[in-house]
Amino acid sequence: MKLGRSKSGSEDQRDSADNAADPTYGARHIAIIMDGNGRWAKRKHLPRAMGHKKGVEAVRQIVRDAGEMGVEALTLYAFSSENWNRPEDEVSDLMGLLRQYIQSDLNEFLENGVRLKVIGNYQALAPDIVSMIDDALRKTASNKKMTVAVALNYGAQDELVRVTQKLAQSVSDGDIKADQITNEHISQRLDTSGLPPLDLLIRTSGELRLSNFLLWQSAYSELYFTDTLWPDFDRKELENALKSFGERDRRYGGR
Ligand code: FPP
Fold this sequence. Notes:
Strand 3 (about 115-120), helix 5 (about 125-140) and strand 4 (about 145-155) form a beta-alpha-beta unit. The chain is an alpha/beta fold. Helix 3 packs parallel to helix 4 (about 90-110) and helix 4 (about 90-110) packs parallel to helix 5. The two termini are about 20 Å apart. The longest helix has 24 residues, at about 90-110. A 6-stranded parallel sheet has the order 3-4-2-1-5-6, sandwiched between helices. The chain has helices at about 10-20, 35-45, 50-70, 90-110, 125-140, 155-170, 185-190, 235-245; strands at about 30-35, 75-80, 115-120, 145-155, 200-205, 220-225. Bound molecules: farnesyl diphosphate (FPP).
């Protein structure tokens, strides 16, 4: 479906046929702020850790579903640079789940042609996690079907500070002139470089904010908010988000 133009009746019919063939409605890159694990657990009178555990199961399933639907890139906000402020035992639970996830799902990534990418300053995580990640990045580097970008110790402002530092260095080295810096110079230095433009940003659990996620990349993304808590987010929910995306009229500032 070609978004961002007006349609005649016959084009509408053709769009429906296209959409039946393309469950992504043309969305190449989807990002998700996976929120609500704690509330999910609380509602069920379970410890918060159980909410995160169920959250990982939802990650596993949505990676499969997005791959089957033909999404090219899926970026998941797993641990923000601000999440260090949580109680130590919760941070430790999340890191434990991350270790388990890489260990248990790496083979599935390899079998399904999924490339792992990590955005954020993951080098600041525990050394054993850093080496597990580096190993997984290396092993999946040539996979082509889909990229799953996991945001770890990620904050968009931190990312933009790092880009600015790199550009300032290039200017002081004489490689670029300050007044010749373009959007492209910035995009190429973002952690997400190499991924398709961000089409759709989803946030679960009813919160209506971006929480320092992909601030540059979301400039023209469509936003989708759902009250569903992350552990309950399933294929049907992803289909609903994509259907909503398919109904948007993307104008990129034009008319
Ligand atoms: C928000 O729930 C979720 C997170 C802080 C992290 C998301 C993490 C996972 C889904 C599990 C780890 C992921 C991987 C890839 C291993 P919350 O705790 O803020 O929920 P609340 O707002 O209801 O308290």
